[in-house]
Every structure is written in structure tokens, then in C-alpha cells.
């Protein structure tokens, strides 16, 4: 069996679009035919689970029983990649728990592939979070995600200040998530389906839908930009080296 991979998506601040990134990751791995499962720690309602119910389980990341449900099954699940959408404010405490249980040590020994998607928020506090996470991630693949979900200009930090935080993590790479048209965003939210399903004009049950041609076009273009960012950092090669190289085109 291929070495399991775990991707944590989180931040210590809310409203930065963590679940948006998790949704694009599930669509991306699906397009590459990488068996993937997800855990939504936004208990009890689970935002990620609303869009990807077939692949997502809602858990309490602070619960030892739920931690066992995630990490004790890494070697037995058919899924090659496990995506964990961390509830707002719990990134640092979750990384501390992973250190306590020996997960980070296993990743350091090469027994598990580990990646952290750290989603930045609109303040200097987000940069300060990097110093906190740097204590834990070690040799893990660390992605600093500039998510323009709110179309703000908070990424115009002084380069020296930004780099002083960014360079604290050995394997850090940048990923930029562009802003999606507001109306398109709203319509996907209402449809409660994966982005690729919205583009393909399919309902939650896989039946033909009647989504706007224009809005589907905006989502298709945006998703292509996001996937190009993942291609840039060779995400599939990192997490699933044997995955198919022929990616399905986002359906029209």
C-alpha cells in the first residue's frame, strides 16, 4: 500500500476561507483519481460535509475517540489522502496534539506524508501565526495560502516583515487563491454541491441541473486558476506519486 498522506487545512483565525480551500482540494484530488477522504472538524454542523457528504465525516478534533477515528485508520483506509478541515482557532492546538501522539515524529521518519495548508487572514496576526506553527511542522510540506476570498488588500505587507515570518519554515511555499465572482460564489453555496459538479451542471444527486451558464463559466475559470496553483507546487507528485497524470478536464 502507498504511504498515507495527511493534509491539514487551518488557521488560528476565522473567516479566512479554510473550507473553500478544502473543497478545491477534494475536487482536485478527485480529478487526479486520487482516493481521498475528509474530516470536517466544524462540529456539529459541518460546512465541508454539506458540499462533499460522500467523502466527509464530521468529527471533534479535540476528542481522543475522534482522533483515533482519523489517525488509527491511516494504514487501513482505501483513501490515499486524508484532508482535515480544522475548525477556526484550532490549528496550533491540533498541531500540538499531533506532536503529543507521535504523529509528527512518524512524518519526520517518512512513514507518513504530511502537508499543512495555512490560510492567512487579513491582519499581521496571521503572520504571527506562522511563528507558532513553525514550532511543529518541521520537515512537513508547508503551504502559506493567500486566499483572496474577501478581495481585500491585506497582502500588501512590507516584504521584509513578510519574509521574516515566511522564512521561519524550512519547506514553505506560497499558494494564491484568487477571488471568485460573488454571484457565482452565492449560487454554489445555494446548490450545496462540489465546484466540479456545479460546473458540470449536476445536482447533489448527480442529476441534470439548471445552473446559470455564465456563473458556471466563472466557476470553471476560477477553479482552473486554483488547480494551476496546485500544479505549480506539484501537489499530486508530493502526496500521491503514482496518481494518474491525465487529469479530467473540468466539465463544461
UniProtKB/TrEMBL annotation:
Q: Which InterPro entries match?
A: P-loop_NTPase (IPR027417)
Task: Give the source's domain of life in one word.
Answer: Bacteria
Q: Per its UniProt record, what Gene3D superfamilies does this chain match? A: P-loop containing nucleotide triphosphate hydrolases
Tell me the protein's name: CobQ/CobB/MinD/ParA nucleotide binding domain-containing protein
Q: Tell me the classification of the organism that encodes this protein.
A: Bacteria, Pseudomonadati, Pseudomonadota, Alphaproteobacteria, Hyphomicrobiales
